[in-house]
Give the backbone structure.
Amino acid sequence: MASIDIRDIHKSYGKIEVLHGVDLTIRDGEFIVLVGPSGCGKSTLLRMIAGLEEVTGGDILIAEKRVNDLAPKDRDIAMVFQSYALYPHMSVAQNMSYSLRLRKTPRERVASAVSAAASKLGLDPFLERRPKALSGGQRQRVAMGRAIVRQPKAFLFDEPLSNLDARLREQMRAEIKKLHGELGATSIYVTHDQIEAMTLADRIVAMHGGVVQQVGSPLDLYDRPANLFVAGFIGSPGMNFIEARYQPGEGSPAARLADGTLVALPHAYALEPDTPVTLGIRPEHVVIGGEGREAAVELIEPTGFGTILHLALHGLPFKVFTTDRKVLNAGNAATISFPPQHLHLFDQEGARVGAV
Amino acid sequence: MRARPLILTLAHRLAILAYILFALFPLFWLLKVSLTPNDLLYSEGVRMWPSRTSFDHFRFVIAHSDFPLFFRNSLIVAGSTALVVTAVASLSGYALSRFAFRAKYWIVALMLLTQMFPLVMLVAPIFRLLSPLGLTNSLTGLVIVYSAFNVPFATFLMQSFFDGIPKDLEEAAKIDGATQFMAFRQIILPLTLPGIAATVGFVFTAAWSELLFALMLISGNEAATFPVGLLSFVSKFSVDFGQMMAAGVLALIPACIFFFLIQRYLVQGLTAGAVKG
């Protein structure tokens, strides 16, 4: 096990720069999730750590040793691919033992490592099968087994669950988390699925456009998103945004919406009066009923656990999530209000505005 | 799926049957003539099967002609060419499939260019090149020429097979601790066996039946391959069809055995990538 340091990493393909200076320190045993939409550079960063992509600028250190110029085989890391990348002409046991055999590990040690990993992953009955004869979930497990037999310095996961169906994904997610708890291995996990990110990570690294947007614990990102991108990306359904202007008021700071009405803010902000701001509130934090503003109900999506209401607020789309099954029909009007403690305020550049 | 009307199915099968008969008829004729005794060859008119068969032609060809020598020469030339070309083409095909390097575009363009000339145009220059090197009238010379002409196409063929193997597999091998070459040899090559079989088969048959260069570069029987040897049954005043056909039937045997051995891979190879595994 080891720490991983990423220092001012740049990556260019020809003239196009896809990573614009990423800094990140991953502690020994930590589970880090790189999350972001496709093309944000998260996979590229992972592949650079693995040694599969060349580093254009900056340094990567594994266990305090600079590995920029080391071949993947000399970095002592294991990786689980989205496609699993199992060797089709080898049995499960051979797939899992390939790395150890390459290292000329004594035969008994190989056998015991493989059988330990196999029993941990419930693969014992399949050791002699070829990957072709396995289900998606079993293949996924073999890919994990191949990684853990080696006891490498770090595990890299490149969207390992994307090819599984929803139920299996949920199950494997829990297994990965359990496995990490048992092995305590430094892990870097790439996904575009924010639920995976939230559930698995010790810390999430949210990326967008080749730049790290925010690093923090899952609840940090959920409760205090650093900017509009993170606010919109984390959470499902996504956060609502409303354009407004800041009104310091006299001890009762508020935001004035386009229609002139005021939304009370929890506290004062270091902003000039009348500064344009973006107000954010999560669908699950909006209160329905009581006093408030009227919005037309356009669409109702029951999810079983709760209901997602698609509203039109001042003509703009607005989502509300509620576990209350109270009947609201499309076409009806709903009264909604925004509890001040759940409001997020972003400036014109999209950065979060802190309290005074 | 709806069952097709019987009549359509019947027509379909009949069409296939007609095609197979058409394709195999010359082979049948080859066999028929080779088994017809000389005295019946011209006296019975056109018949589908002679009234009496004999193996005399075969006996003569094997025991009293140079055919065993031609056969051996052909086997050496076709076999060596297939080996050399497949070895070179699998390496170069892999390079074209996996690596980005300078002048890759131009190398591919040059290889394509070599495929554009009618071979007849090249006979004279190649003769001029090989003759001072002492490579005319030698099997080595033939192997070199055949290899040169087959490598570009075989390279493209192998490249397409390598393209069909996910890059992830090599990357996984490299992370598991393999060097580039080990990943190639232990992971990629075994998966390309169908492709290799297809390439070997293609090159082998091409070299086995090549006549033009064999005819131009080889004089005398010592280094003649079997297509050239077949011509020796044509003399100034007559063509010994019976013996020629018997030799032809014998020449089919190695190609048949060869394809029988590789057909398992071949079917895979030619359909590789057609469906997602």
